[in-house]
Amino acid sequence: MALYTLGINFCFLPASAQMPANYDEDKIKPYQLPDPLRMENGKTVTSSKQWEKQRIAILNLFKTHVYGAMPGKVAGLTFRTLSVDSMALDGKAIRKQIAVIFGKDANSPKMEVLLYLPVEAKSPVPVFAGLNFYGNQTVHTDPGINLPTGWIANGPTGVENNIANVASRGFQTERWQLEELISRGYGLATAYYGDLEPDHAEGWKTGIRTTLAKSLGLQAQEWSAIGAWAWGLSRMMDYLETEPLVNARQVALTGHSRLGKAALWAAANDTRFAIVISNNSGEGGAALARRNYGETVEVINTSFPHWFVAKFKEYNKDPNQLPVDQHMLLALMAPRPLYVASAVEDQWADPKGEFLGAKHAEPVYQLFNKKGLGVVQMPDVNQPVGDVVAYHIRSGKHDINAYDWQQYLNFADRHFNNPAK
Ligand code: GCU
């Protein structure tokens, strides 16, 4: 099978991804999932009230065994508006660029948020938020978007020697569907994940896990790159809460692939995100870790040692020993609407494992009388299912495209009852 169809991003291709992977359902080793409702004292959670405590216990297990600590807000967090254009996208949108500065001092580390809002909105709008892979300038060809100055992975057009140039503008337009979002009454907030931590094994040395170690009171090794990216999403939320044109109670957090893992971890910690969308997040995201299908715990830990805490590597040989599995991460979203999406040609991410992750989160949603997927088996291709917990598997490769966004917009319309549309 071509690496492309396995959903492997060429520019991040790790050597260990070439280790043979299992794609045969008959070769899945037997496993037993931990029960999210089973408390430490052996009793079962039976009410949403009891779940509050259990939720914290599960969150702590993920901190210890998988993603590491999650610090709170940094002191002196500052938002500086860098530019505003009320005539962006041919007069359809307002474009704002904001420096989210992690400290009082102007030289503190920062992340740049790009925000688009529909001009025609009569009231504060719901917003889709998420990190991007190659810089804000890649989400649209709009020449007013600032180019990032930091390290970017080589690979895409317009990135040379790890620096982005103007030729990278609009490189991932397809993945963001910005005009469609605006025309349907939604805003978009995004930031480049490398502003938080460059995505390579040594990235932590120049990222916020080092530069903010003192101000956050946390050593770099106590958390992870996914933790740092997720932390940045919460700081984006801090900013959105101050923006009068945004309805901060209607922020849908999205993320594709590794950034889907980060989005799930962010939303698990931060319940201000009202909707959570995992797009092809795979291993370490929505897919069950216990299934040896496509990418495994061992492979991900070997290829991307910086993504998780060191302790997670102890489960390389036997994920059955993990006290959690990813259905429990998804359960931490309850009772908020959750959408999990897969792609047929993205077997590397284990679509069935992603479906089962969502399926096994259902008992927790039931505590809140919320309906789950409404199906027992995986649905057919391009047949979305579910209400508060939704799922689809679309045709095509590892990606986030117009089809995915149509489902997410419909999902958000349904749950936000978007008045602006
Ligand atoms: C690799 C990695 C996945 C990840 C993906 C991506 O394929 O193995 O775990 O989700 O990159 O982020 O595109």
Automatic annotation (TrEMBL):
User: What are the record keywords, sorted?
Assistant: Hydrolase, Serine esterase, Signal
Report if keyword Disulfide bond is assigned.
Answer: no
Q: Name one GO molecular function term.
A: carboxylic ester hydrolase activity
Q: Which InterPro entries match?
A: AB_hydrolase_fold, GCE-like_dom
Asked if the keyword Hydrolase belongs to this entry, the reply reads yes
Signal sequence annotation: 1-17
Which residue range or ranges hold the 4-O-methyl-glucuronoyl methylesterase-like domain?
A: 221-367
Top-level division of the source organism's lineage? Bacteria
The protein's name in its UniProt record: Acetylxylan esterase
